[in-house]
Design a protein that fits this description.
- The complex is a heterodimer of chains A (113) and B (114).
- Chain A has no helices and 11 strands.
- Chain A is mostly beta strands and 113 residues long.
- Chain B has 114 residues and is mainly β.
- Chain B is globular, with a radius of gyration of 13 Å.
- The model of chain B has no long low-confidence stretch (mean pLDDT 93).
- Classes of the chains: A mainly beta (113), B mainly beta (114).
- At the A-B interface, strand 4, strand 9 and strand 10 of A face strand 5 and strand 10 of B.
């Protein structure tokens, strides 16, 4: 039972354009959401997070949007750069469940110069 | 500050053997979590340790176990290895816990079971 899903396994975008990554979840208890980025042969690195009391969080080129009623979050990268080419994972946790992180399957992003 | 280190980086074992993986967290971090990454399943949570106690556990069989030492270093053990255990095993550390503060991942241990 996949509680966090990233339905697009891959995404290709031109440098300078917007990358939009989507993530859906089923557990309404989730109250904290994160995005991680992973390069080959490295561990994931934290990108940005959002708590369920907000609907948007911005950090430089990265913005995360949360739609609680739709149980959907998205990550926008503007403008996309070749160095953004990586696998992106969304993750969610519920305080009531002891802060365990549940990850989506990942979306591979390729930014073409 | 040194990052999260994992040893060994690569490991080849045969079915039925057992394996121990090691993780040294960032200095001062007390929470260590372990994840299994496979191509089909993404990152799956194994367990989390905090102050030498297992605080959280994922849905893995009892063949997967772990422990944490007083210096916060952690080990995970997999007994009676199966082909399906071939994966990248990642550990991550944080000050207090995976969703209360930023979690930092190590580079992983690539385990191949033949």
């Amino acid at each position: 039972d996949q509680q966090v899903k990233q339905n697009s396994p891959s995404l290709s975008v031109q440098e300078g354009r917007i990358s939009i990554l989507n993530c859906d979840y089923t557990n309404s208890m989730f109250d904290y959401f994160l995005w991680y980025k992973k390069y080959p042969a490295e561990g994931p690195t934290f990108l940005i997070s959002i708590s369920s009391i907000k609907d948007k969080n911005e950090d430089g080129r990265f913005t995360v949007f949360l739609n609680k009623s739709a149980k959907h979050l998205s990550l926008h990268i503007v403008p996309s750069q070749p160095g953004d080419s990586a696998v992106y994972f969304c993750a969610a946790s519920a305080q009531a469940a002891g802060n365990k992180l549940t990850f989506g399957g990942g979306t591979r992003v390729l930014v073409k110069p | 500050k040194a990052g999260v280190t994992q040893t060994p980086r690569y490991l080849i074992k045969t079915r039925g053997q057992q394996v121990t993986l090691s993780c040294s967290p960032i200095s001062g971090h007390r929470s260590v979590s372990w994840y299994q990454q496979t191509p089909g399943q993404g990152l799956q949570f194994l367990f989390e340790y905090f102050s030498e106690t297992q605080r959280n556990k994922g849905n893995f069989p009892g063949r997967f176990s772990g422990r944490q030492f007083s210096n916060s270093r952690s080990e995970m053990n997999v007994s009676t290895l199966e082909l399906g255990d071939s994966a990248l095993y990642l550990c991550a550390s944080s000050l207090w816990g995976p969703s209360t503060d930023t979690q930092y991942f190590g580079p992983g241990t690539r385990l191949t079971v033949l």
